[in-house]
Give the backbone structure.
Amino acid sequence: MFLAWNEIKNNKLRFTLIVSVLMLVSYLVFLLSGLANGLENMNKAAVDKWKAQGVILTEESDINLPQSSLSLDDYDGKGADEFASLAQISSIATSGNNKSNVTIFGIDAGEFIMPNITEGEAFQNANEVVANDSLKEDGFKIGDELRLSSTEKTLTIVGFTDNAKFIAAPVLYTDLQTLQNVRYGEAAEVYKDQINAFVIRTDDLSNVDVKKELQVVDTTTFIENLPGYSEQSLTLTFMIYFLFVISAVVLAIFLYVLTIQKISIFGVMKAQGISSNYLARSVIAQTFLLAFAGVILGFLLTLVTGAFLPDVVPIIFQYLDLLTYGVVLVFVSILGALFSIQTIVKIDPLKAIGG
Amino acid sequence: MSVLEMKQVHKVFGSGHTKVEALKPTNFSANKGELIAVIGPSGSGKSTFLTIAGGLQPPTNGYVFINGRDITELNEKQRSVIRLKEIGFVLQASNLVPFLNVNQQMQLLDKVKKDNLPAEKLEELYQTLGIRKLLNSFPADLSGGEKQRVAIAKALYTNPSIILADEPTASLDSDRAFEVMEMLQEITTNSNKTTIVVTHDTRLINYCNKVYNITDGRLSLQTETAQ
């Protein structure tokens, strides 16, 4: 640490540049991590809100909620602690000049998937909905009458809830009968028992007993099969992993160039009996200091950016993720330094001093 | 017992028609309190002699003993320890670390070796070498003579039994060169060290107890004066 720190102190510009590069890489990793979390949350927030362990869908639905069609009579709760019926459609809601894609969940207000109310009141009558509060940013408010793209019916917002998005669209919660009216119009009475899924809470999904043509899917699998979810997550995760590699390579190049510039100094020190081990530890200590400083500055820059980003940007910082990525960045930076250490070990003091 | 002894040390580079005999079979010994000069023209084998004596490269044949221990049997890591404990190098080019000030040059040695000179001895060394006021200076701020004096201080701080100096006055004017040799002479005598100076500058031989000449890899004693 002694050599490492004193070299940094006496070559401030050079090391500031290295720290700046690491700071920018860390910043990008942290922002991507936040963006990945934000986008994931946009897709699955309403599912997380259920706090459920599994979903019952039809076998032929291929774990796709809109493609699953079953009846209220198809499951009687066998093997589950609690279960709730769920019907779902997608639509476009318009109120005045305000327009938004929405997902409508038809539920039983007495069941556990009924959302908490953050403003207004729960739906009690037909054609009333509780909406995700992100719609407020689009100009929607309590009392608004919503015209839907798929029906002549209108729904009225009576309350708001939070964290209720499904496949990036804000959710409108209403009762099952209202949803059937919207979905089937005059035929609603005929299809009044048609739903898309049962949501279940249980300690052990294997105990859930369903008909042959139905399947029990754990919540994680259900989320991973949401349209585009895995592709989006994997893309961002790959970008983060590539940034780790880029970070290691960039730092390896910087440190290698610095090491090459110092071959004669290291050679003289080795001639004087200072071991390769001490010099290697010094390079690792220096790399740690640089990477740590870069990651901390990147983190601070991320926090500042996060404070100024508009709410429309789907970014959520999970501090445990940021800590993990920070540790990984420091670790891969040290891996990059191993390249220089190999060079130090190979320095022949005799050649370095011109013997 | 000699502090440094070389027995039938022979160094050959290459083979066949590219074979070069850098050091012909050589016997040499140096005792405590001796300041020895090895002089010879460029390419005569001076540096080969010095680097084998200092354990920086092994001989092709022969043995090198430092305080009775054969260092030709040791691996690089073990030789590195011997260099740190027993040998102080003063090199032609400055052997100072550019990003450490004079005081930190000594602190670096404290990091790698514990039993260096005590503080009062180091203070004496600074006074003797006239570098007390330079402790916060970096190598880039020092003149050639000051750098060599700091390099000597660094070589002596680990309290080695042998000082090996490779052209220590090469970058100095005559006055500074004589000043450095006077210091080496004083330290060798007062601290009972063994100092070997390899140089092509024959003006320096007046400071030495023994002068060896090396030509085409052959070492021969030229003059010897009483201590």
Notes: Chain B has one domain: 4-224. The helical segments of chain B are 46-53, 76-86, 102-112, 119-129, 144-157, 174-190. The beta strands of chain B are 4-13, 20-30, 35-39, 61-66, 69-70, 87-90, 162-166, 194-199, 210-215, 218-224. Chain B has a mean pLDDT of 88.
